[in-house]
Amino acid sequence: MKKLSDKGFKKLVQKNIDKVDFVKTILYDDSAISGFIVKFSDEFLMIEETYDFSLSGIKIVPYDRVKSIRHNKVDEISKKIYLEENLIKFNHKIIDKTSLNDFESLFKSIKKQDFHCIVESKKKKRDVFSIGEILEVNDKSVTIQNYSATGKIYKKPDVISFKNIELINFNDNYSKTFRKYLK
Predict the structure, then answer these.
(1) What counts of helices (H) and strands (E) characterise the chain?
(2) Is the pLDDT of residue 31 over 90?
(3) Whole-structure pTM value
(4) What is the distance between the alpha carbons of residues 106 and 133, in angstroms, rounded to a whole number?
């Protein structure tokens, strides 16, 4: 596999964006994200994630988590279904307003658009799931006002170091819906 920072990889990603290819992004932990790559930078991929033939939100993946990107005949069939069902409706305003320069600008742009987000991270080899409003962003971390699966807002917010972040979701059905029912 080519190094992710090389010219060939960026050319492949741009081709996937230009052709609106349905892809499967495989991560180093062997998990995968299916959907459409809509934007990229030297640091991140922005994927319009899909689930059960619907667009289910934006996932931001740091490059160092990406093992490979697959686009094969199976993915072509998925794209054909999305096209024929008229399901590919990207919100270009959100895509354009989301900065992929670095973590700090990314979280500031999500906050400015007034989205809650989901951040998956690792802390001392333990998986951490944080969901909520972005309270503060600095050059090393983001502070999320986390809430529980019962909609209860935790008193102490989560401070997440950028170096521990594995995935970021926003404009997804889960966080948009849960936000309405917070206690």
Answers:
(1) 5, 10
(2) yes
(3) 0.92
(4) 14
